[in-house]
Design a protein that fits this description.
The protein is of the alpha/beta class and 512 residues long. It is built from 16 helices and 19 strands. The chain has three domains: 217 residues, FAD/NAD(P)-binding domain (3-Layer(bba) Sandwich); 149 residues, FAD/NAD(P)-binding domain (3-Layer(bba) Sandwich); 65 residues, no CATH class.
Length: 512
């Protein structure tokens, strides 16, 4: 019997747990440990911070989904990893012994690297921070002022930095207060859209043009040195790395991306991690000193791709992490069966090359196969593609194991409960959605109209709500192959429905 322990119940950890449990033997065990009782889709955090998503849209208890597959779930933080003892000590007092350990804990922001960063700026690294950012933003729009959106030296995965800047621009325009707010983007990159990749890919011109279009100023090669309550202090470097100019930027609201570090229970394992507490791995995504310890996701120490005057971390995406997860699962199984391992290097090199060539299409998580779409010039298109991928990925996490019947607790019942208890406000269909011609037989049509009248809804509005809920219920009955087929069909339909190319970056969302 083999016991695989996975630390982390996020995008990397849960996906790997599902795959391993499906491929290991009936007597093998998989245990997932997380300091949070829920899964949440991290790439949508910027939307939470804008009020364009509710927490319940992207976060839900993960224990039942793991346990339905025979995976043990423990809700506890990690206190210490002892690889020499092949054990993990948990904050709840438990000790787990493992045959193979997979670290997929995610990261924490190194907010102490810049004085004032934690106290005076917002972040969207975690969903709780996104909730706090939304509260601060709602206060800001009551008393608008300058906005500074920035990244610390060494920050990585910088696509969301740009996404958030354009989200803010769109939301302020929707509120008719954009002309009262200056937006400045502060980045350690040598030029806008560098993303830690280097080269002169498609993203440089596209990002620069988009910033000009939206009147967002940018300061590059920026080393943020201190943040006061309402002022940001920056030293701008030249191409040789010498001090060029200092900036003092006032702000009424600031969102900042810190550099990443390991979570406390991982960074204390000195034999596994680098100076920032990120897990050191070889080409097989396992630790070179402890071959039964693997790592996956943002917690992996990635070398910089390009040398820059101000350090810029390596890029990553849900897509690249998912592909790395496939290799980790393959290599764990190979280790168990004494088979050759597969190198991750060629795959990552290809992904980096693709991203460098078509970088602008990758800026907004996640990477999806819509290669002809330039996000910076066709923002509405890839905004919709991101919504599509969010639904696809969450549905994969929530799908029932093969052979199991979906829960009787339905989305339709949820809609009716909200309607009857007054938790859901009546909506209108004007100007939103797409028409879908449906012919109902006379009896269900009369019942729908009567039902709508009895609960104070327009029949078309209630029908749309119930149909959307019924589709969600139907999706929960799909198996893995059907989910993949549906995702492919969605992408094909999305591409077919795209409008003619048009300039400008446009986001359309809710917001309060």
């Amino acid at each position: 019997m083999t016991h695989v322990v996975i630390l982390g119940a996020g995008i990397a950890g849960v996906s790997a747990a599902y795959a391993l449990k499906a491929k290991l033997g009936p007597h093998d065990e998989v245990t997932v440990v997380s300091d949070k009782p829920y899964f949440h889709f991290v790439p949508s955090n910027p939307w939470i911070a804008m009020g364009w998503r509710e927490r319940s849209d992207i976060a839900f208890p993960i224990g039942p989904y793991l346990e339905s597959r025979g995976i043990k779930f423990i809700h506890s933080a990690v206190r210490r990893i002892q690889p020499d003892m092949i054990q993990v000590d948990l904050d709840n007092g438990d000790t787990l012994f493992y045959d193979i350990l997979l670290i997929a804990t995610g990261v924490v922001g190194q907010s102490d690297a810049i004085p004032g960063l934690a106290e005076h700026t917002q972040s969207v690294i975690h969903i709780d921070q996104a909730d706090q950012a939304l509260a601060a933003y709602r206060e800001f729009v009551r008393r608008p002022g300058p906005i500074v959106i920035g990244a610390a030296p060494g920050a990585s995965v910088l696509g969301p930095l740009y996404e958030y800047a354009f989200l803010i621009d769109a939301d302020l325009k929707r509120r008719n207060i954009r002309e009262r707010v200056s937006i400045t983007l502060v980045t350690p990159e040598p030029w806008p859209g560098h993303l830690g990749l280097g080269g002169e890919g498609a993203s440089r011109g596209a990002v620069t043009a988009a910033l000009v279009d939206t009147k967002i100023s940018a300061i590059c090669n920026a080393r943020t040195t201190r943040i006061d309550k309402d002022t940001l202090h920056i030293t701008e470097l030249d191409a040789a790395g010498n001090d060029k100019q200092t900036h003092t930027l006032p702000f009424a609201y600031s969102m900042f991306w810190p550099a990443f570090g390991g979570v406390p229970g991982v960074r204390s394992a000195s034999g596994l991690v680098d100076a920032r507490g990120l897990v050191v791995v070889d080409e097989y995504l396992r630790n070179p000193d402890y071959p039964n310890v693997f790592a996956l996701g943002a917690c992996v120490a990635q070398p910089p791709v390009d040398k820059t005057p101000v350090p810029v971390g390596a890029p990553d995406s849900v897509y690249s992490i998912s592909k790395a997860g496939e290799i980790v699962v393959q290599n764990i199984l190979a280790l168990i069966h004494d088979a050759p391992l597969t190198s991750h290097v060629p795959q990552r090199a290809k992904w980096l090359n693709d991203m460098g060539r078509d970088g602008a299409a990758y800026l907004s998580e996640p990477q999806v196969p819509l290669r002809d779409i330039n996000w910076m010039r066709q923002g509405r298109w890839v905004h919709q593609a991101k919504i599509d991928f969010e639904k696809y990925f969450i549905n994969k996490i929530r799908q029932q194991p093969a052979g199991q019947i979906a829960s009787i607790v339905s989305h339709v019942a949820g809609v009716m409960n909200q309607v009857l208890t007054g938790q859901s406000r009546p909506q209108t269909l004007a100007g939103s959605g797409k028409p879908l011609e449906i012919h109902l037989q006379q009896d269900p049509c009369l019942e729908l109209r009567a039902l709508a009248q009895s609960v104070g809804r327009e029949p078309a509005v209630l029908a749309a709500e119930l149909l959307a809920a019924a589709v969600s219920d139907a999706k929960s009955c799909l198996g893995g192959d059907e989910v993949e087929a549906m995702a492919l069909a969605r992408r094909e339909l999305l591409v077919a429905d795209l409008p003619e190319r048009q300039p400008g970056v446009e986001f359309h969302g809710g917001g309060t």
